């Protein structure tokens, strides 16, 4: 797959949109931004959707209200137990949602595992968490480290607001520890030709470390992964 990355608030991640079940009736999106994904989901929906949006940025959430049934401004790192928040607890009922969605959000949290575990509690049995997470194993990260530099940028892998970093293995563990069965892993690769020479040069180092060189290359090309984790049940 090859495409172009998109900004956080106003555009739709097409890979994430593609894994949303058009028949889903109840969806909670964490970090819903200006509501672009919610609008796209409604356009593809085969029925009525109850869509909850949780967003840190009040000005962006204000733009999303036409696409949301319920909207709350929250910094989830500041709400350790959702049951203690009357509005969240009344909205995010246990075992009631078909999807919970985190599109490029978990890496911005101090406590992503805690947040994801509570979101999973809101899923009905058989419901799924849809997450998109940047890949810190991307070749561009290696290139910068070899140069002895860690950029501070407004977006992307080197977004200065990132707090946690994940490889594909870390992402899988995060979902599994939250009680999910990982059913799909979809790499998002952009301009793979730019990293080929570096990855070719690093294959002997991977081999020296006991890592399959071909797997190393495969896992170093995606800028992001979209994962689908299902909550066990019928």
Describe this structure in words.
This protein has helices spanning 14-18, 36-44, 58-64, 86-91, 112-122, 139-146, 168-177, 196-208, 213-220; strands at 26-30, 50-55, 70-73, 97-103, 123-134, 181-189, 222-230. It is of the alpha/beta class and 234 residues long. The protein has 9 helices and 7 strands, in the order H-E-H-E-H-E-H-E-H-E-H-H-E-H-H-E. The relative contact order is 0.16. The protein has a 7-stranded mixed sheet. Helix 8 packs across helix 9 (213-220).
Helix content: 25-40%
Mean pLDDT metric: 94
Estimated structural class: alpha/beta
Biggest sheet strand line-up: 3-2-1-4-5-7-6
- In CATH, the homologous superfamily goes by the name Vaccinia Virus protein VP39
Shape: globular
Number of domains: 1
- The ordered string of helix (H) and strand (E) elements is HEHEHEHEHEHHEHHE
Strand content range: 15-25%
Proper CATH architecture: 3-Layer(aba) Sandwich
Largest sheet: 7 strands, mixed
CATH fold category name: Rossmann fold
Radius of gyration: 18 Å
User: What gap, in angstroms, lies between the N and C termini?
Assistant: 32 Å
Topology, number of strands: 7
Q: Helix segment count?
A: 9
> Briefly, what CATH class?
Alpha Beta
Low-confidence stretches are: 1-6
């Amino acid at each position: 797959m090859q495409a172009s990355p998109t900004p956080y608030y106003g555009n739709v991640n097409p890979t994430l949109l593609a894994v949303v079940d058009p028949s889903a009736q109840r969806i909670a999106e964490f970090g819903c931004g200006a509501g672009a994904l919610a609008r796209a989901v409604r356009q593809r929906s085969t029925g009525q959707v109850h869509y909850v949006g949780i967003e840190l940025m009040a000005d962006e959430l204000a733009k999303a209200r036409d696409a949301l049934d319920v909207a709350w401004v929250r910094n989830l790192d500041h709400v350790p137990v959702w049951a203690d928040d009357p509005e969240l607890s009344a909205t995010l009922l246990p075992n009631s949602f078909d999807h919970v969605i985190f599109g490029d959000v978990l890496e911005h949290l101090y406590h992503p595992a805690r947040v994801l575990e509570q979101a999973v509690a809101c899923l009905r049995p058989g419901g799924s968490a849809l997450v998109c997470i940047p890949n810190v194993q991307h070749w561009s990260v290696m290139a910068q480290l070899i140069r002895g530099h860690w950029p501070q940028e407004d977006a992307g892998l080197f977004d200065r607001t990132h707090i946690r970093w994940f490889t594909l293995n870390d992402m899988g563990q995060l979902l599994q520890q939250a009680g999910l069965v990982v059913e799909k892993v979809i790499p998002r690769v952009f301009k793979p030709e730019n990293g080929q020479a570096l990855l070719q040069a690093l294959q002997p180092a991977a081999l020296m470390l006991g890592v399959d060189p071909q797997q190393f290359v495969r896992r170093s090309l995606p800028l992001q992964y979209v994962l689908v984790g299902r909550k066990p049940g019928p």
